[in-house]
Amino acid sequence: MKTEKYSCIQNQYNKKYHTGNISLCAQDPERLKDPVDFVQQLLDAKDKFDAIVGRAFVNDKAFQNALNQAFEHFVNLNQRSPEYISLFMDDKLRKGLKVWGPAGF
């Protein structure tokens, strides 16, 4: 089975990104100063790792699940994540409204 073939790599991948390097970023005070930028960087990193899993592991479900769990864990490390996501969405909606202008509706 394909997943069994990659189990060693997947275990290392889980260790590094689920409990390792990614959690250090959640506690970095410099990254937390601007909630909108923090969420944008998180989304950019997710896109980057999705592309890696897509190319290197042909979108193997086990790797996709490991990546999703790692990012879920990362987001949950910061108790203010819901607030940051809300501020991010608010910022994007406001910028979108400015682009459309009053006559854009």
> So how many helices?
5
Low-confidence stretches: none
Return the average pLDDT rounded to an integer: 78
Sum up the overall morphology in one term.
elongated
List the helices and strands and how they pair.
Elements: H1 2-5, H2 7-26, H3 35-56, H4 61-77, H5 81-100
What can you tell me about this protein's structure?
With 105 residues, this protein is mostly helical. The chain has one domain. 79% of the residues lie in helices and 0% in strands. It is built from five helices and no strands. Helix 3 packs antiparallel against helix 4 and helix 3 (35-56) crosses helix 5. The termini are far apart. 12% of the residues are buried. The model has no long low-confidence stretch (mean pLDDT 78).
Overview in brief:
With 105 residues, this protein is mostly helical. It is built from 5 helices and no strands. The protein is elongated and about 55 Å long.
Key words describing this protein structure:
105 residues, mainly alpha
